From TrEMBL:
Protein name per UniProt: Sugar ABC transporter substrate-binding protein
A single GO cellular-component term on record: cell envelope
MF-aspect GO terms: carbohydrate binding
Gene3D superfamilies registered for this protein in UniProt: 3.40.50.2300
Organism of origin: Streptomyces lydicus
InterPro entries found in the cross-reference section: Peripla_BP_I (IPR028082), SBP_2_dom (IPR025997)
Top-rank taxon: Bacteria
Domain (Periplasmic binding protein) ranges: 78-333
Compartment(s) where it occurs, according to its Swiss-Prot or TrEMBL record: Cell envelope
Family: Belongs to the bacterial solute-binding protein 2 family.
Length: 379
């Protein structure tokens, strides 16, 4: 068992004891009210609670690839980041750098600065470097359609991270593989957590970035799953592009508090970053970091998100991507592309991290992924 999860097992055991005694973990003074309230959707609630229990399990044995081509030598890759202020994008970049060093490749990170012009400029620069492979991280490849086409024509394999709606290979855009958990799973479990924790009675604000198709689809799916519970009301579907979150969050949160007041009891966002910037406004309004609105980030589970969750500071849960692990997977997928092998087909399972089950950890990755990949590569 991963060392950080030993503590999590103990915490989970305590959670079970607390639940058995009629107290919901993290519920505070409102626990008895929520547990005694008549559920707003008995069937959906039962299904949501079962799904959440499974997703909160703390053991994560490696279920990814164990075979593949040995590492080729002397390759170079360029990682184009949508913006390095997005902790998820930055976390995967570090994983790519770490894994590339293991196989003796050169890996360079370029910052697209979160704007279409910046992304196109970064892609043009990447092409000038004539790498063996390019990573499109956290942005729509259509933003740099001409550059993507040029890379395809030059035979440069492209791998996405959150660059297309689904994991695996893509024909339009042409990607050798897109690395992500299944957006349907992440969206569903995020909404199910709200349904389960609120006992089917919640007033929800949903934050999205409609400029990124992957993010917009995720939030649409969260909205769809929330609608399965008649007692769960979507108060607001707020579009706030990730590059603008820093400047707009305080104003948006103040407006939402003014409009909805105590009706706003839960939030979901397509990225944990929203709650980093929402916290000052909630704090200024006199809200308790461990109280309502209870917030869940439907990605990416970066260290700062875990710190907020563990400290009960305006974020109650995250559905983390295994960021470092996915950086290693990107290098493995490139190695398969360079070797003429198909992509691995691996998709990381969905997980929910809370203060009760994280064991104080600041990340979530499958156990033994580094050893598995090193064995494949012949390191």
């Amino acid at each position: 068992m991963h060392p950080t999860r030993k503590a999590a097992v103990t915490a989970a055991a305590l959670l079970v004891m607390a639940t058995a005694s009629g107290c919901e973990s993290g519920a505070g003074a409102t626990a008895s009210h929520r547990s005694s309230a008549k559920p707003g959707c008995p069937t959906a609630l039962s299904r949501a609670k079962q799904a959440v229990k499974k997703a909160e399990a703390v053991n994560a044995p490696w279920r990814g690839p164990t075979t593949g081509p040995k590492a080729v030598h002397g390759k170079s890759v360029v990682y184009i980041a949508q913006t390095l202020t997005n902790p998820g994008v930055a976390g995967v970049a570090r994983g790519v750098q770490e894994a590339a060093k293991i196989v003796g490749w050169q890996a360079r990170t370029l910052n697209g600065e979160g704007t279409p012009d910046g992304l196109r400029a970064a892609f043009k620069r990447a092409l000038r470097l004539k790498p063996d492979g390019i990573v499109i991280s956290g942005f729509d490849p259509g933003t740099a359609a001409a550059e993507v086409k040029k890379a395809n024509s030059e035979g440069i394999p492209l791998i996405g991270w959150h660059a297309a709606p689904a994991p695996g290979p893509s024909k339009d855009p042409q990607l050798f593989s897109n690395i992500t958990s299944r957006v349907e799973d992440v969206a569903k479990i995020s909404a199910d957590w709200i349904i389960a924790r609120s006992n089917g009675r919640a007033g929800v604000v949903l934050f999205t970035d409609a400029t990124v198709p992957f993010a917009k689809r995720k939030s649409d799916l969260i909205k769809k799953e929330l609608a399965t519970c008649s007692g769960t009301k979507l108060l607001s579907y707020t579009n706030m592009p990730i590059p603008q979150v820093n400047s707009r969050s305080i104003g948006e949160v103040r407006s939402l508090l003014s409009r909805f007041g105590r009706k706003w009891t839960y939030s979901a966002a397509i990225n944990d970053l929203y709650f980093q910037h929402a916290a000052p406004a909630l704090r200024a309004a006199g809200k308790d970091g461990a109280g309502a609105p209870f917030n869940i980030g439907a990605g990416d589970g970066d260290p700062s998100a875990f710190q907020r969750v563990n400290g009960k500071e305006f974020q109650a849960a995250t559905v983390p991507e295994p960021l470092s692990e996915q950086g290693w997977q990107i290098i493995d997928e490139f190695n398969r592309a360079f070797s003429g092998a198909p992509e691995s087909g691996y998709v990381a399972p969905v997980h929910i991290a809370t203060a009760a089950n994280s064991g104080g950890a600041l990340s979530w990755d499958s156990e033994g992924y580094r050893q598995a990949y090193r064995k494949i590569w012949g390191d």
